[in-house]
Design brief:
By secondary structure, this protein is α/β, with parallel strands linked by helices. It folds into two domains: 200 residues, Isopropylmalate Dehydrogenase; 120 residues, 3-Layer(aba) Sandwich (Isopropylmalate Dehydrogenase). 35% of the residues lie in helices and 17% in strands. The protein has a twelve-stranded mixed sheet, with helices on both faces. Pfam families: PdxA (PF04166). It comes from Gymnodinialimonas phycosphaerae. This is 4-hydroxythreonine-4-phosphate dehydrogenase. Homodimer.
């Protein structure tokens, strides 16, 4: 029997608990997963709960209700009002999920949205976000963020930094590693035997021969030539404004953008509700809904579980494509 997916509940005062319930209502036994969290934070959200003593019980339990691997938190969860007392619980649940997937008790880890300020205020959380904490737990130096939906996979080479700092941060080593990690993941986790990559330039019109910037000539272009010579199929550097229409997307399996908004604007335009955040380069599969805690609508019953459902489905498909031990590291 296939191993279930572990879902860390995330910030319990956000929409994580209610979209977990809605995901179970939509998926039921078709895609077994279990929530790691405090059952008290999930009661009364419209689904029966089934407490687990082991992840191995999840597949059977999901016929009867939302499977929950209990993890006690310090305080109740009030929608829209994060309690600093629960910050350590949020962090510990993530670590527990990583441990379970690394030990092979879960096929993948899907993470509910967290609120970084609440974690910092309540528990001194020292990481910029989920991704960096997962890399720390896994002992991995460099990971890659991919945003994916059925119509597009896109990777930002630089992520959460000011636009003014992007040119300095965009080094040959960073670009080379990002492309290699992306290409490996497309082969192993997405079942694409010969990935086609498209790489955007940094500047308008990809620098227009140096008239609008030289990063394409001095950094991006040489790395792409090196990797093409090594056998990769890569186009670019291309003008980003021509890369994301339907005709262009038909010619690549993933696009690499040079900074955050260059990557996220197209995918959120194409599929705002259904985009999935995937972390590449970890020794296990991790997906996440592409949205935050949404404190403003938590508890109102209006939260949309589309992205979480897509994240669980993608984790399932990636685990099937990988078909190997979760302890196997990226090559």
């Amino acid at each position: 029997m296939a191993r279930p997916i572990a879902l860390s509940v995330g910030e319990p005062s956000g929409i994580g608990p209610e979209i977990a319930v809605r995901a179970w209502a939509a998926l039921g036994a078709k895609l077994p997963f279990f929530v790691i969290g405090d059952p008290a934070h999930l009661v009364g959200l419209g689904a029966p709960l089934v407490a687990l003593s082991s992840p191995s019980e999840a597949a059977a339990a999901c016929h009867d209700g939302l499977p929950v691997l209990p993890h006690a938190f310090a305080a109740p969860a009030i929608p829209g009002q994060p309690d600093p007392a629960n910050a350590q619980g949020v962090i510990d649940v993530i670590a527990r999920g990583v441990d379970l997937v690394m030990r092979g008790e879960a096929s993948a880890l899907t993470t509910g949205p967290i609120h970084k300020k609440a974690l910092k205020d309540g528990a001194g959380f020292a990481f910029p976000g989920h991704t960096e904490y997962l890399a720390h737990l896994a002992g991995v130096e460099r990971v890659v963020m991919m945003l994916a939906c059925p119509e597009l996979r896109v990777v930002p080479v630089t992520i959460h930094i000011p636009v003014a700092k992007v040119p300095k941060a965009l080094t040959a080593d960073l670009l080379r590693d990002t492309i290699r990690i992306t290409e490996t993941a497309l082969r192993r986790d997405f079942g694409i035997p010969a990935p086609r990559l498209a790489v955007a330039g940094l500047n308008p019109h990809a620098g227009e021969g140096g008239a609008m910037g030289r990063e394409e000539i001095e950094v991006i272009g040489p790395v792409l030539e090196e990797l093409r010579a090594a056998g990769m199929t890569i186009s670019g550097p291309s003008s980003a404004d021509t890369m994301f229409h339907a005709g262009a997307r038909a010619h690549y399996d993933a696009a690499l953008a040079m900074y955050h908004d260059q990557a996220l604007i197209p995918i959120k335009t194409i599929d705002f509700a259904g985009g999935v955040n995937v972390t590449l380069g970890l020794p296990f599969i991790r997906t996440s809904p592409d949205h935050g805690t949404a404190f403003d609508i938590a508890g109102t019953g209006s939260a949309d579980a589309t992205s979480l459902i897509a994240a669980l489905k993608m984790a399932h498909d990636m685990a099937a494509a990988r078909g190997s031990s979760p302890k196997e590291a990226e090559q």
